[in-house]
Sequence to fold (305 residues):
Amino acid sequence: MLREVLDVLDVLDDPAAGAAEFNSLLPEGVCDASVAPFEGELGKTEFVAYRFKGRAGRQSGGESRTMGIVGSLGGLRLPGDYPGLNSDADGCIVALACALRLAHMWERGLVLKGDVVVTTHICQAAHPEPHDPLPFVMPPMPVDDEYRTLIEDEMEAILAPETCKGNKMMSRTGFAVTPPVKEGYILRPHASLLHAMEMVTTHPAVVFPLTMQDITPFHNGIHHVCGMMLPAQFTNAPVVGVPVTADVAVVPAATGVYQTNVLEATGRYCIEVATAYGNGDCHLFYEGDFNAMVARYGSMHHLLK
Fold:
């Protein structure tokens, strides 16, 4: 899906471009597309959602499960002397490339068994916020409101691609997966999830380390490595982050640092997991693990407040 990544980059490179410009790339009738604009004191953004109906998905009355792909980010660029797309744009680029790839597949009759819902937001003017070790790029609205808007009720499992290069937690250029998070529990990744990563990359699977604080609300005064796990606060569906990583720590606001081959592989992985999830061949977590933890230790919903 390199062509889709390049097309998305070409559209988003124009600071005046938004949902309308991206939607013009989509073939007609392949999906249900919606746009929800937001404007506040700190700027504006557009929330976009793309629903692809599967052959035997919920939208068609079938039993196949629905995968959500949530492009997580603060914004595409910051005002100032460095006007290009920044590192933080990765989540949006991957999500839109997935939507465009799915649209091309649907147009060619390559319809998946399960439904897929892709969401992200397109913010061409974000703002910086202090963070250790490197400043975050932030959206023009409260983060809780952002992720609440990105989650759709029909998502039964969620992949959340986002840049996660501004740290020293992982020194490897590529992408990783996090342990799945469900209802406040950090669980072990399912073997099928890791197998898909190995097949897509032809390398051993890489799991990004999470801490308990990463799954708590963003503005609670506690350090978060990034925002990719915040969707887990607003859904009972399992959430797996798909962080885009680097050999060295990269400033989220840095421009000219995106790696097209990494973005392509990240998007291809999301599509493959969505395909296998709808087919019943891939799972994000082990249900027995989750049920045993709840039975022994009770609810962890209090971590999400």
